[in-house]
Write a structure and sequence with these properties.
The chain has 18 helices and 12 strands. The chain has 519 residues and is an alpha/beta fold. The chain folds into 2 domains: 215 residues, no CATH class; 167 residues, Rossmann fold (3-Layer(aba) Sandwich). The strands form 3 sheets. The chain has a 6-stranded mixed β-sheet with strand order 7-6-5-8-9-10, sandwiched between helices. Strands 2-1-4-3 form a 4-stranded parallel β-sheet. Helix 9 links the parallel strand 3 and strand 4. Helix 6 crosses helix 12 and helix 13 crosses helix 16. It binds guanosine-5'-diphosphate (GDP).
């Protein structure tokens, strides 16, 4: 296995070196690890990622090149993780190792899943679990995964991810000497049982339990597992998950939680009083939750990282400045929309992200001319084609050279198709490597990219009546993703009103997002 990964890494490096022009990039740094015989010298010290040591140090970086090499493509982040967050992660890694798949604790905990309440099903020692099952498109999945991971950190549960969604084609294992993949023979989700499990009428579904009758909170009736339905169309009963009382007296005691989710529910975790104290210590800078956790948890596989670095080297590395424009048209039947194009141009020029066009040729000498590369991501190619044409046909008023690049043009969403999802992920990472970013309102694809990159985006407002809105876009006050469907009226209603660090999202009302300095 080790040999195979070294071979893949070596091939990966050599192929890229041969195919691409030399540039001050990851491969040049990697090349310095190549010995004279061309083999990969794994003993040479490699750049370790992330100020503050967020990453686990025991992980092997050859089977997952992105883990340590990502830092060399990024500007140093001004946002440092707190020492408390680092210590929480180190303790979490130990817990995961003790309780993860293959451990005696895991075996014993899964055996107890079949037992009836009161027969010992509730006693699993220190190991309690939360299983994440994704729903919707890639970025919806990821924002929910990060939310579930934060919940696991807060409640000292072990996170396990359902692997049927192809997560291992996208990301490397994040924790040392263990696995985060839920074994395929996990009793609750095997074979035909699986579909029935996710039916909301499942009597273990927390919202359904509440709807049928309040669960009996005596210890003997604690179930061995609960199903949590945290999907955008969830009911008020499902939203009781966010109530302190429900967490303390019931949910927190259940050994296994299985959560199906597509939402970024982090802001509502901050509104649970007993979690808030801990969260303030973990994230003194509130808008950095997704930023830090995504960089800790998510490391693209070598295949995805190849897509990222090949694009980066060929198109982005030479730029003096990089602008990302993420165009998402939610209407499945619409591809190119002229008003969206007008809006992109209006926003980028008004915010001075791109120069105006000129009728006169400016006299800047070639060597002094700044090169700005615009990375466009969209299912549709027309936006980048038009932008490219615009800057080719006329000079810019500033004399800057503008290059436009779009990596893929998939046309339609094909979630769960391996290469499609890998391209989508690679594009998110490429967007996160830009200096400024323009995103589409309500798109989690954009949230993932800007938050990972540590960028506050310019958000293109949702067009009304097929016309470009005026103003066309707004600069976000926080780099956090928006929680589109927060529980506004239940147990958290009052807290939302008096909490200064949550605000209505710029692109979604009644969405909520975390901010440091409310405006
Ligand atoms: P959202 O729907 O914008 O919130 O983002 P999701 O990621 O949840 O779902 C959209 C899906 O459509 C992505 O995961 C991709 O599969 C596809 N998609 C949308 N925009 C792009 C894009 O710019 N590039 C690529 N490669 N795929 C995209």
């Amino acid at each position: 296995m080790e040999k195979l990964t070294v071979t893949i890494a070596t091939c990966f490096i050599l192929c890229s070196v041969l195919l691409l022009p030399p540039s001050p990039n990851i491969f040049n740094r990697l090349k310095s690890n190549l010995t004279t015989t061309g083999s990969y010298d794994s003993k040479k010290p490699r750049e370790k990622l992330l100020g503050g040591g967020l990453l686990a140090t025991e992980l092997d970086d050859e089977s997952c090149l992105s883990r340590y090499h990502q830092a060399s493509l990024r500007k140093p982040s001004p946002h440092k993780p707190s020492a408390y967050l680092v210590s929480k992660l180190r303790s979490y890694e130990k817990l995961h190792k003790r309780c993860g798949p293959g451990s005696d604790a895991y075996k014993s905990a899964t055996e107890k899943l079949g037992l009836k309440p009161g027969n010992g099903s509730e006693s699993v020692g220190e190991c309690r679990y939360i299983v994440w099952v994704p729903y919707s498109g890639l970025a919806n999945r990821i924002i929910s995964l990060v939310s579930v991971f934060l919940y696991a950190l807060l409640t000292e549960r072990v996170i396990l991810v359902d692997q049927r969604s192809g997560i291992s084609d996208l990301f490397c294992e994040p924790f040392p000497a263990t696995s985060w993949l839920l074994p395929r023979n996990f009793p609750l989700l095997g074979g035909k049982k699986r579909d029935r499990f996710f039916d909301r009428s499942n009597s273990h579904c927390y919202g359904t339990m509440l709807r049928n009758s309040a669960p009996n909170l005596t210890e003997t009736s604690l179930p061995s597992y609960l199903y949590l339905y945290l999907i955008s169309d969830y009911s008020d009963d499902d939203k009781m998950f966010f109530c302190e009382e429900d967490q303390k007296t019931f949910i927190g005691e259940v050994p296994w939680l299985v959560v199906n989710s597509n939402i970024y529910f982090v802001p509502s975790l901050w509104l649970i009083p007993s979690f808030q104290t801990e969260l303030i210590k973990m994230f003194p800078e509130k808008e950095t939750v997704f930023h830090h956790l995504s960089r800790y948890l998510l490391h693209p596989t070598n295949q995805v990282w190849g897509l990222v670095t090949r694009s980066y080297d060929a198109y982005l590395s030479r730029a003096d400045e990089r602008l990302g424009i993420q165009v998402r048209v939610f209407d499945r039947h619409a591809g190119y929309l002229q008003h969206v194009m007008d809006q992109i141009v209006a926003c980028t020029q008004r915010e001075k992200l791109l120069p105006e066009l000129s009728t006169q040729v400016t006299n800047t000498s070639r060597s002094k001319r700044l090169l700005k590369v615009v990375l466009v991501t969209s299912l549709h190619p027309e936006y980048s084609v038009k932008l490219k044409r615009m800057f080719w046909e006329q000079p810019t008023s500033t004399g800057e050279s503008i290059e436009v690049y779009q990596p893929s043009e998939e046309r339609v969403q094909q979630t769960d198709k391996k290469l499609h999802d890998q391209k989508a992920l690679a594009e998110v990472y490429l967007l996160s490597l830009t200096d400024n970013i323009v995103t589409t309102a309500r798109s989690t694809f954009g949230y993932f990219a800007h938050s990972l990159g540590g960028l506050r985006p310019w958000i293109l407002y949702k067009p009304v009546n097929r016309t470009a809105p005026d103003p066309p876009c707004v600069k976000a006050v926080s780099m956090e993703p928006c929680f589109h469907r927060p529980p506004l009226y239940g147990c958290q209603a009052k807290t939302i009103e008096i909490t200064p660090f949550v605000m209505t999202c710029e692109d979604s009302n009644p969405g909520l997002k975390l901010v440091d300095a409310p405006e």
